[in-house]
Amino acid sequence: MKAETLFQKIGADFYTGVPDSQLKALCNFLMTKYGTDPEHHIIAANEGNCTAIAAGYHLATGKVAVVYMQNSGEGNIVNPAASLLHTKVYGIPVLFVVGWRGEPGVHDEPQHIFQGEITLKLLEDLEIEPFVISKDTEEEEIAQAMEHFRELFASGRSAAFVVRKGALTYDGPVSYENEYTLTREEAIRQIAAASGEDPVVSTTGKASRELFEIREAAGEDHSRDFLTVGSMGHASSIALGVALQRKDRRVWCIDGDGAALMHLGAMGVIGRIRPENLVHVVINNGAHETVGGMPTAVREMDLLSLARACGYPSAISVQTAGELEEALAEIRAGRDLQFLEVKCAIGAREDLGRPTTSARENKQKFMSRLLDNSGRA
CA 243 to CA 251: how far, in whole Å? Predict the structure, then answer.
């Protein structure tokens, strides 16, 4: 089904969400139609943020907003869905469009497997009625589903279209780019070299995939790296937990702009605690690149001022390989909580692979190395 057709059948004029590769066709259509005009389309920080925006839209207009997201974001909507939208509270209707990663019987990455298994059940437990869209779903079926959904909306209930892999298409030309030339992979290569034997926690998506392949190409093992394949936005908190318990090690967090934005409060906690052995790097290309390239709000934010306001004593921004090399040398020479923003281009190698070890293997090797007191301080 064409994304334009789904849009027409839904009939809403306000969308907010967090981009998803399964919904890339819809996301690209919305960017073509609305861009980031906040009157009609807001790319939010996380799925709970989207849900609250949608609630505010309904309060102000009486109309139903659409929230799009990957099913991994269902966890972020549990609180507002249960304590804000539900009919036992305010009875605010929202239409969710959910990309179904990890659908049972469909091969996917490990972080999506369990989430895929519970996707429909979790929606049903929240009393959000789902309708599954497949490649062969007809327009009339969507129209009938919307007719039923409108009855639910009138009673204050919410509903969801759950979109299977390949169910939506969009043929319009879409291009996402910025003005920077340093690639994320080259930046991560320099960071990996500078971190030496230190433990590294990398964020979900292409950053972790690139770090894995950089180690492979260098003939290094992967025991110093924790590849956060799921739980977007939590890499810096994982790194904080490690750093506080292993003060004998400098801990590096390779974060992304969309991930850092998703749970921005983590920076406030890190800045208040101020662990002297933590280096927080945000690779900032201003885009949700792993799921398509749609822009993040970070593109227009001053991350250095934000980091300093959160309590980071040192904050540096770079955008070239030379500047990054100098910044990394300065960080290596220091001994305090450090923040580094690396502005880079949008894009990755076409042949970029995925980790060949399982998540559990990654955890076990990382822990084994970290708990080995013979490691370098």
Answer: 6
pLDDT recorded at residue 11: 97
Query: Count of alpha carbons within 13 Å of 135, Cβ hemisphere only?
Result: 2
The gap from C-alpha 221 to its chain's centroid, in whole angstroms, comes to: 27
Q: Which two tokens stand for residue 358?
A: 């399982």
* Three-class secondary structure of residue 93 per DSSP: coil
Question: Length of the chain in residues, anyone?
Answer: 377
Copy the structure tokens of residue 232.
Answer: 């977007």
Positions of the chain with pLDDT lower than 70, given as ranges? 373-377
Rounded-to-integer distance, Cα 283 and Cα 257, Å: 6
Residues contacting residue 305 through CB under 8 Å, at least 6 positions apart: none
- φ and ψ of 100, to 5 deg: -95, 85
Find out whether 286 and 295 touch, Cβ atoms under 8 Å: yes
- Three-class DSSP labels, the chain: CEHHHHHHHHCCCCEEECCCHHHHHHHHHHHHHCCCCCCCEEECCCHHHHHHHHHHHHHHHCCCCEEEEEHHHHHHHHHHHHHHHCCCCCCCCCEEEEECCCCCCCCCCHHHHHHHHHHHHHHHHCCEEEEEECCCCCHHHHHHHHHHHHHHHHCCCEEEEEECCCCCECCCCCCCCCCCCCCHHHHHHHHHHHHCCCCEEECCCHHHHHHHHHHHHCCCCCCCEEECCCCCCCHHHHHHHHHHHCCCCCEEEEEEHHHHHHCCHHHHHHHHHCCCCEEEEEEECCEEHHHCCEECHHHHCCHHHHHHHHCCCEEEEECCHHHHHHHHHHHHHCCCCEEEEEECCCCCCCCCCCCCCCHHHHHHHHHHHHCCCCCCC
pLDDT at 373: 57
CA–CA distance, 44 with 50 (Å, rounded to integer): 6
Q: Do β-strands 158-163 and 66-70 pair in parallel, antiparallel, or remain unpaired? A: unpaired
Neighbours of 197 (CB within 10 A): 12
Residues 6+ apart with CB under 8 A from 139: 1, 5, 9
pLDDT tens digits along 209-250: 999 999 999 999 899 999 998 889 999 999 999 999 999 999
